[in-house]
Specification:
- The chain is α+β, with helices and mostly antiparallel strands.
- Helix content is 32%, strand content 21%.
- It is built from 35 helices and 47 strands.
- The strands form nine sheets. An eight-stranded mixed beta sheet has the order 1-4-3-5-10-9-8-2. A seven-stranded mixed beta sheet has the order 11-17-14-15-13-16-12.
- The protein is globular.
């Protein structure tokens, strides 16, 4: 079989049946093993399900390199894919009807196949393993070896014996199968383990190590890394080595030749292993542009980015795609964005016609990504002002919380530039929660200037930055980083929490059979189900809805294949409102129309003129470096017979490296001005002419001045900041200032000057004046040195060159005063910045003012120009002489693009429901009992006329429900005062007592009425016995009233205790337990136990040995006090608000309520048997000074998202109308 046909080979093996028990195949038209080994192709079997049958096919395909297969022959490997294996109706039952396979049957078939192995042409293949991405795609690798040999080979890679979960071991071994190119072998002795930066909850450096420049360059060379035909050394590499997994970032501080790598503890996933191969999975690259997808669009829209803005962005993207096949300029930019410089060059050198077919294919691919097979939109909108970047940690510790450092290869000149003076929007896919989009302040830090095309996060703060975005880390996660002001929301959400998932532990060694079974059972069905439910709820209520946040938590838990249970309340979303169309539907309709229009639209290009040089010299939106533009211009000039040096001045030659400048000079004719123009950046200055430079021999090509600041490109407000850095970093500096339309000043400073120090420069500084309208006769007087004892002091706000004392100053630069009257009252920072810029553009304000003693140059210059006193600096440039690459100092100032964050949405609803307590003055008394009006008028004698138990219970319950506690207390007191006289009331005394005890259970404060009624023993025997029998209820009432009455409860409680004749040990213990669970003050608990329980214990627990009683009570009291102290110290209040619903079941007379808990809450659902406290979240609207009601409870049942509580205190009548907070 010819090599070119290997990839097209395909052959059906068999139909699939549940009765299959072996998989042997002979007489296949496969190429010889030697051909496979030479070509790198491996055999690949796929299990494919159709409507009513499933079958197996074999084909050949390339296998991505990895450590597990490194050194093995491709002919010994077999790929098996189950991704399309979803059997439905291929099983006939006894009646001949086809029925679907059950999940168990599918799993068992997969496991049996892998356990038995596959035999092809007499060679037997057994299960070997899979990468984590292959696990998700249901693909694994089989190896032509025995099971024992495979097990031995796996264990040779490392020690996996300590792992206690099957999933963890499978994923750790999966690291060996990750697609990665083995670059070299490294001796572990040349690696160093360093600690993580972490706190009790988070690891801030999770998965992020360091690499030396020496090894970084060596790996780049070995792997042949290049970018547009030029060797490229990335700042970040995603790696696999021994048991280490993660990324390593370039660290110039690692100069010790012995140490090549530094690994964090978090990078080590397993130990041991003999394989020392070092493999690179991926690396940071320039021009990896970001796109808006469905998830990001939904979240941006929820944060306030309008549908019109998103539609405009999509329309611009489609217009860009459409014009890529019609306009050479757009085609060139499109190909640069796709990192296809060769085809872009062909557009330039030949024509659009010669490349149209290839470009159309690329455009169709982009369009295809927008519409799936079901014609469902998959939003993919190119955002030029964005990148997809590796996230790394700030190993230098220079970033603060909320900051980041972003340096990217820009599409204007191909130079790396640091973003600063604004915020960037950052997220990570998948993202379902608005809090997954976060803003970070981009800042420039020189210590991080070597890190390009990545985003650097701080190692300080309450929580790692990466974790805020979908629970990311720094072991290879990429982040969408955007600085497009149109997509910068002014509203943000607090980030969601993403705790880890607990996996079932295995207390026996985990075998290869366990790994095989784990692969067979793995399913991502839950992932799709959760995502679909999420979209249903988003359409109905928006992504900030509690249900969407809970589904986001479930999604994060099942994204790695973990099994989850979806609560029934999340299964059915309400129908969306018809008032507003869902944003994805809006974009979808527009996309369908745009693509249809693009497919039907044609354009006649005859006579269309294309000026290639106009395109080359217009850099806007071209993702290409300056040197690449020079090379393309050279080719075009040679093709058209045009001299390159005629257009040389259009290029930013300062941005070329020394090597690139040398190559450029080699292609130019020998002319006097050419070397200077290329090698000396001063020759392209916008402030000093070539004639003025020549007067001081500053145009010499051997003087390699490099420009690091130019106010025509960089913001003037950064001038002194850049000057201070240049003075600190470089030995030779030339600072040029345009201080007047007639005068430019230059300062040559040949020494390093420390920030904010009066640094002695003596006579080393040279000052040059360039009067633009003055004749050359005074030039000799316009270059002067400073004198002995001159000093220079510079910081971000002031520059002063003076002789000994500051009053004898030659040059003084400082920030200008501001007339802020036009923007003083503007609250929005971004708007204030833009309004200030308007005042700068109009000349009303200036960033810096300068004063210069011109008489030190000579009276003639001062007479000609006039005084320079607090003049606004019109323009400035800074040049340095150095061998280092100054391109790393360039920045992209986003000061004017700042968008304020005006609102931050909390994760949980912070607004509790309003409620009110019934007020007797607003009640309609005509609908109640006939006795109620008299009681309200405090005529309690009416109670004596009540003739039925039901009527009395109704009256007492009515008073309770309407919060008439005073009337209820007086009613009970009246009834008890008359209880001894059987003729005083229409009802029998025992019946009245029964009703009172019913009311006591709901109103514990009524217990004090029994302490006020005198001696119980003086009552008739029947009543005394009835009260004695209910005495635990009376004591219970005192205990439940203790939190409100505090020490006032002690005296009446002791009086009640003294009247109780006896008590069982079980009731005694229950009362002490109730004290421990409900009395919140440790001091009051101690008083109750020692003053009420302890003195009466021996008398009450009669008939028991005194020693036993003593031990019993001391143990009970000790346990109670320990619980109260522990509960008081460890009490925490949950953030979420709860709603309570009454459960029909009661426990020992105590009410039971149930509450729904959000799955995404930080504390989850309370555990069963836990002691909790429920408190009303706010005060009643009609009683703003009343303390919110609080009750203690025990968790009697708990499941994901729901718990039931046994309430130890009675429920208030309004408990279902208010919101509650839980303390645990």
């Amino acid at each position: 079989m010819e090599k070119l046909k290997l990839g097209s080979y395909e052959q059906k093996l068999q139909n699939i049946s549940l009765s299959d028990h072996e998989w042997k195949y002979e007489d296949l038209a496969l190429p010889r093993p030697s051909i496979l080994d030479a070509s790198g192709y491996v055999k690949s079997i796929s299990l494919v399900s159709k409507d009513i049958e499933s079958h197996m096919t074999i084909k050949l395909q390339k296998l991505s390199p990895n450590r597990a297969t490194d050194g093995l022959k491709p002919s010994d490997l077999l790929l098996v894919s189950f991704s399309a294996f979803r059997p439905r109706y291929s099983v006939a039952d006894e009646s001949g009807e086809y029925r679907p396979w059950t999940r168990k049957e599918s799993v068992d078939y997969t496991a049996n196949l892998l356990r038995t192995g596959i035999e092809i042409q007499g060679v037997h293949y057994n299960f070997y393993g899979h990468s984590n991405s292959q696990l998700k795609s249901r693909t694994c690798i089989l190896l032509a070896a025995s099971k024992d040999a495979i097990s031995t080979r796996i264990e040779s890679f490392g020690d996996f014996s300590k792992m206690k979960t099957v999933a963890k071991k499978a994923k750790r071994i999966g690291l060996l199968f990750s697609s990665a190119q083995v670059a070299t072998t490294i001796d572990p002795k040349r690696c160093e383990d360093i600690p993580d930066v972490e706190d009790d909850s988070y690891v801030f450096t999770d998965g992020c190590g360091l690499i030396s420049p020496r090894l970084n360059q060596d790996l780049s060379r070995r792997l042949g890394l290049s970018f547009r035909d030029k060797r490229y050394s990335p700042s970040v590499m995603q790696i696999r080595y021994l048991g280490y997994k993660g990324v390593v970032t370039l660290d110039p501080r690692m100069k010790d030749p012995h140490t090549l790598l530094k690994f964090r503890k978090s990078m080590k996933k397993f130990s041991g292993g003999k394989d020392m191969s070092f493999a690179v999975v991926e690396y940071s690259k320039p021009y990896v542009f970001g796109h808006l997808n469905d998830e990001v669009v939904i979240l941006l829209h929820s944060l306030g980015i309008s549908a019109d803005t998103l539609l405009r962005k999509q329309s611009e993207h489609f217009e860009f795609l459409e014009n890529a096949t019609k306009d050479p300029r757009v085609a060139f930019r499109f190909l640069c964005y796709l990192n296809n410089p060769n085809l872009a060059e062909k557009v330039l050198m030949e024509s659009l016609e010669s490349t149209r077919a290839e470009i159309a294919k690329l455009v169709n691919t982009e369009k295809g990504r927008m519409l799936s097979k079901r014609d469902t939109q998959r939003c993919r909108i190119l955002v030029p002002k964005s990148r997809l970047l590796f996230g790394v940690c700030d190993a230098w510790g220079v970033l603060k919380e909320g900051e980041c450092h972003v340096k990217i290869t820009t599409d204007e000149n191909g130079l790396p530039q640091t973003l600063k003076n604004a915020h960037v929007l950052v997220t990570r896919n998948p993202c379902l929660h608005p809090g997954d989009l976060q803003k970070f302040k981009v800042v420039y830090r020189p210590e991080l200037s070597h890190l390009v095309d990545c985003i650097v996060f701080p190692i300080r703060g309450k929580r790692p930055s990466a974790d805020m975005m979908s629970g990311g880390d720094l072991d290879g996660d990429t982040f969408f980083v955007c600085w497009d002001e149109d997509l910068m929301p002014s509203k943000l959400s607090d980030p969601a929490l993403y705790p880890g998932v607990r996996e079932p532990l295995s207390f026996k060694p985990i075998s290869d059979e366990d790994r095989l079974q784990f692969f067979s059972q793995y399913s991502s069905v839950s992932l799709g189900r959760v995502k679909n439910l999420y979209l249903d709820w988003v359409k109905a209520k928006g992504p900030m809805a509690p249900e969407c946040q809970e589904l986001n938590r479930l999604f994060s838990q099942c994204v790695d294949g973990n099994r989850i249970k979806i609560p029934p309340r999340l299964e059915n979303a309400p129908k969306p409102s018809t008032d507003a169309q869902f944003i994805l539907d809006v974009l979808h309709e527009s996309a369908v129309k745009s693509i249809a229009a693009m497919n039907s639209n044609t354009r006649n290009l005859e006579g269309y003129e294309f000026d290639a040089m106009e395109l080359l010299l217009n850099r806007d939106g071209i993702a290409i470096s300056e040197f690449e533009l020079v090379k393309l211009a050279f080719k075009w000039c040679r093709h058209h017979g045009t001299p390159l040096h005629d257009i040389l001045h259009f290029f930013d030659l300062n941005s070329l490296s020394a090597e690139e400048k040398a190559w450029t000079i080699s292609q130019l004719p020998i002319l006097p001005r050419i070397p200077s123009l290329i090698m000396n950046a001063l020759c392209s200055s916008g402030l000093i002419s070539s004639y003025e430079l020549s007067m001081f021999a500053l145009d010499n090509p051997n003087i390699r001045w490099q420009r690091i600041y130019d106010s025509s490109r960089d913001r003037m407000a950064n001038f002194l900041e850049e000057t201070t850095v240049a003075l600190e970093v470089f030995h030779r500096k030339l600072i040029i200032l345009r201080v007047d339309e007639r005068l430019t000043i230059a300062l040559y400073i040949p020494r390093k000057v420390e920030r904010s120090q009066d640094y002695l420069v003596d006579d080393k500084v040279r000052l040059l004046a360039f009067p633009h309208s003055q004749g050359p006769q005074l030039q000799s007087r316009l270059c002067l040195p400073t004198k002995i004892n001159y000093r220079l002091c510079c910081d971000d706000n002031s520059f002063q060159l003076f002789e000994q004392q500051r009053r004898n100053t030659w040059v003084h630069i400082r920030r200008g005063g501001s007339d802020d009257s036009s923007y003083r009252n503007t609250a929005n920072l971004g708007d204030r910045r833009r309004q200030r810029q308007e005042t700068l553009d109009s000349g009303r304000n200036v960033d810096f003012i300068v004063s210069i003693a011109l008489d030190k140059f000579g009276r003639g210059l001062q007479k000609h120009v006039g005084r320079v006193n607090r003049n606004g600096i019109l323009a400035a440039e800074i040049y340095v002489i150095t061998n280092r690459d100054v391109r790393s100092m360039h920045s992209l100032d986003l000061w004017l693009q700042h968008i304020d964050t005006e609102e931050r949405m909390p994760l949980f609803d912070e607004e509790p429901k309003e409620y009110s307590i019934p007020d007797l003055t607003t009640l309609d008394l005509g609908r109640g009992s006939e006795y109620i009006p008299s009681i309200i008028n405090e005529d309690f004698s009416i109670l004596s006329d009540i003739e039925s138990r039901e009527d009395l219970l109704y009256v007492l319950e009515w008073l309770q429900k309407n919060s008439a506690k005073d009337l209820l207390f007086q009613s009970i007191s009246y009834l008890l005062s008359e209880i001894g006289d059987p003729e005083a009331n229409a009802l029998a005394p025992t019946t009245i007592l029964e009703a009172i005890f019913v009311s006591l259970d709901s109103n514990p404060f009524l217990s004090t009425t029994f302490a006020q009624m005198g001696s119980w023993s003086e009552l008739p025997e029947e009543l005394a016995a009835q009260i004695e029998n209910k005495s635990p209820n009376i004591l219970r009432g005192f205990i439940l009233s203790a939190n409100s009455a505090q020490e006032l409860v002690l005296k009446p409680m002791k009086m009640a205790f003294s009247q109780v004749e006896s008590m069982s040990s079980s009731i005694f213990a229950e009362l002490i337990e109730l004290v421990a669970l409900t009395v919140r003050s440790p001091g009051l608990t101690l008083d109750i136990l020692l003053e009420c329980f302890e003195p009466e214990s021996t008398r009450l627990l009669c008939g028991v040995d005194a020693l036993i009683i003593n031990n019993f009570k001391h143990n009970l009291i000790g346990i109670a006090l320990d619980h109260v102290g522990e509960a008081d110290e460890n009490a925490k209040i949950r953030d979420d608000l709860l709603e309570l619903k009454l459960d029909p079941k009661q426990i020992d007379g105590d009410p039971v309520v149930k509450a729904t808990f959000r799955i995404d809450s930080a504390s989850g659902t309370p555990e069963r048997s836990a002691h909790v406290r429920l408190t009303v979240a706010n005060k009643p609207t009609n009683l703003p000074f009343q303390k919110p009601y609080s009750l203690d409870a025990l968790v009697v049942s708990s499941e994901k998202g729901m718990a039931k509580f046994r309430c130890l205190h009675p429920l208030p009548p309004y408990f279902e109308q208010c919101s509650w907070r839980l303390t645990f």
